[in-house]
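Let's study a protein:

===
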Amino acid sequence: MNVRPSPIAGSWYPSQPEALTWELNQYLDQARVKPPGGKVWGIVVPHAGYFYSGPVAAYAFKCLLGLQPEVVAVISPFHHGHSASLLTTAHTAYQTPLGLIEIDIQAVAELDRRLCECLDEGLIPLSRDQEHSLEIELPFLQHVLGRFCLLPVMIQDQRTPVAKALGQALAVTLQGRPALLVASSDLSHFYPHKIACRLDAELLRRLEAFDPLGVMEAESEGVGFACGRAAIAAVLWAARQLGANRVSILHHATSGDVSGEFGSVVGYGAAIIWQETELKGG
């Protein structure tokens, strides 16, 4: 098996399984959240180190307890620069302290084929990438879901046509399968706490309105920011096509809430994307 080793275990989160499991349990125990009453299609979670983002991310991950998806598509930004629009792993498994997560090779190939049809370019595989924003979600997923296969996508080109094409291709690829979508994104970066909260509130309002185009346009309009805006939008477009019709914002905080330094903060939000079914009266 061709395994991608973790470049961030021991720095962004604990490298020892026992310490990592203990920390994850602490975050999940502290997250006071009631899962929605319908089918969960996806979540939006932050991707900073667990010390900062773990308490927020746990609100979304806790809503996944009891789910048994066959495949989890984790969609993240790519922070390191590349000529390709969309990237994936060249490995057949990811390694974390909690064990191996196998790649759904067939799903990756199917998604690549459909992207080539609509974008004229597909997924470029990378070996031993250093991207943290995708990997950081994996131990939480392992802890709450158990066994699953992974469909990893990292977005370099965050333009709207790319995000929409990715969302549509994801929906077709995952149609009919027990699947979960995960959008990895932090919110505002390095504003004073008060301004960050205002910007984050607008971005989260657009997210809760199930408005992927609004999420994409928030930064250009100067009213909100998400470093993984294309990941959020792609997951929203995919989830809608699969049947989701609701987004619930579960929690928001900034790095200042943890560090006590409020002059320059990063914002974090957690949300659940789900399908509310209308109940018919008797």
